[in-house]
Amino acid sequence: MSLLDEPRSAELFAPSQRRSRTIDWQEPGPVARAASTMPGIEVMAAIRDGRLPPPPLAKLIGFKMAEVHPGRIVMRLDPEQSLENTVGMLHGAVAAALLDTAMGCAISTELPAGQGSVTMDLKLTYLRPLSVRSGTISAEGRVVKLGRQSSYTEDFVYDGGGKLAVHATATFAMIGAGPQHRSPPQDS
Amino acid sequence: MSLLDEPRSAELFAPSQRRSRTIDWQEPGPVARAASTMPGIEVMAAIRDGRLPPPPLAKLIGFKMAEVHPGRIVMRLDPEQSLENTVGMLHGAVAAALLDTAMGCAISTELPAGQGSVTMDLKLTYLRPLSVRSGTISAEGRVVKLGRQSSYTEDFVYDGGGKLAVHATATFAMIGAGPQHRSPPQDS
Amino acid sequence: MSLLDEPRSAELFAPSQRRSRTIDWQEPGPVARAASTMPGIEVMAAIRDGRLPPPPLAKLIGFKMAEVHPGRIVMRLDPEQSLENTVGMLHGAVAAALLDTAMGCAISTELPAGQGSVTMDLKLTYLRPLSVRSGTISAEGRVVKLGRQSSYTEDFVYDGGGKLAVHATATFAMIGAGPQHRSPPQDS
Amino acid sequence: MSLLDEPRSAELFAPSQRRSRTIDWQEPGPVARAASTMPGIEVMAAIRDGRLPPPPLAKLIGFKMAEVHPGRIVMRLDPEQSLENTVGMLHGAVAAALLDTAMGCAISTELPAGQGSVTMDLKLTYLRPLSVRSGTISAEGRVVKLGRQSSYTEDFVYDGGGKLAVHATATFAMIGAGPQHRSPPQDS
């Protein structure tokens, strides 16, 4: 027994209710290879300036690298409907995308060529809902402690009015090393 | 001074390296209004069965509601390139999207019409990298404790081979109530 | 089969290896009743100045309230051997005691008489080990967002040399209200 | 100006309101050296059986190792007043002490002699308050994933009536190695 009758269901799926969007991105493999020869802060600056393509997910979600500083990165997003959850707010994963990227890239700004990091754990606290009416959203990621085996970062996400919407902290495992040791993250 | 020369940059942006994908979704407003008159587990079953459209972000990321049980939801995803980060793995926000949704929907299965929840905090631990070669990814969200003001959930994300890839816990704030406020979720 | 032979075990339990310490505290019930009639910041100042007894656990662990500011509290600890774990470092729960207290008290400084908070969740990241050789440890808790139903705080724990040892964030549920429920904390 | 008058303050500090308790423990250094030659599960069994002294903090808080299994440890505590916070509940750090220990020891049960772990991050969610009226509290820590560089664990804390009071997850950095490499955790 369903409480959703057929006519209602048909109406919700009507073509008049359909929206669509085409996204495009650049093949990430060649980008990663080019980036692996550059110091992290150069890679970030090149993405910010449009000389290196951003990763596919950045195009999918629609966020951009806005500022690159040693140990600090700002990402920006102009939200739109495809990012909404069922109740018409931005899905929590949208902020997660911005801030995970901002924190990982903040670490990269401190690393030499060939080194990187992968997220080990991520804790988000949602303090204020975000929606398509929130204006341009920004996520500021900064390095709290850079380590040899792991690094710790935090991030503040603000809505367009400058109000704090999400706070996050994350620990990243450090991977790779100088030219002589470029192994992928081993699975422990 | 940049280490990325012009010819290299042009090559990375070459049309031959461009990929694209068109996503479509249904306008979420009417869906939310229809859903607000149904018990949560009916809404989830209707989305699973294709009688109610999923939220826009589910179409953007590409995940589907696969199983609906009282207090437990399974989401599934067949990953593809637009979900990748710079180094060709799935971006951490992809798992966040699946598991945040699975946990929030698991709470919904226990709620009467007109009630819902919003994520207060979310903690993810990444245990194994995911990629387009991971097979069908599944996220099982379950309610640990249902409360009147907040509820606590956990989620296990597995790769296609059944290996645990991500574990998450989340606290949700309980919101709304039907017009008659019929039987709020009991505080266990 | 045990690898720990009898003589070795006896030696480890020898009276010459025994240490002891007597702790004392004041019965907490009357303190809580007295405190319930005072604005939070007055309660904190009274504990800092020795006019109100600290809670029993503060005497057990040995930490003291050192600074009281609106929205910010500093706790201090001179560590000693009874706080050690098996490998001779301070047990992780020691920092947890300081910082959970500092954050909860930071919220109290913003609350009128009769209102308080309880910890909902607490996330600690250990960045540097602490020991009895760490000098005077300090934990600075501050309110990030004060809300009507929940509040969010963060805390930095430093060793005696001023190096960051632990970072923590916590969400507290807001409880109680004075008889007249005068001016609840505004939701910023 | 203080709202706490002198006579009231004197009364709260009256000898009739004073409680005290003497704790004792064994010097931890020799215990650590003895333990370093035994497989972790043997060390845990020896502590459980009273052949090895527990760490000082376990005596301070009053918890005991109750069960030792491969990958799983149960700690128990009979709470008493010195563990209380200002409002007469058990301080949040008490559960933190039990569960951090239980999880770290659960990892130890899987390790050979000379290896150990240190807490990197710890996330606790408080689901039900604990007090001296909660009966015997138990904390069950278990290994979710054992890794070479880090391991992931979870813990459920129950009150004496078997109700879930706290849930926690933690990541530990793996330290030490076989007899040939017994370096302390380097500070990154």
TrEMBL record, chains A, B, C, D:
Against CDD domains, the record matches this protein to: PaaI_thioesterase
Query: From which organism does this entry originate?
Result: Rhodopseudomonas palustris
Q: Which Pfam families match?
A: 4HBT
Q: Which family does it belong to?
A: Belongs to the thioesterase PaaI family.
Give the stretches traversing the membrane: none
Sorted alphabetically, the keyword list is: Hydrolase
Keyword Hydrolase tagged: yes
Ranges for domain Thioesterase: 88-164
Disordered as annotated region, ranges: 1-20
Q: A single GO molecular function, which one? A: fatty acyl-CoA hydrolase activity
Q: What is this protein called?
A: PaaI family thioesterase
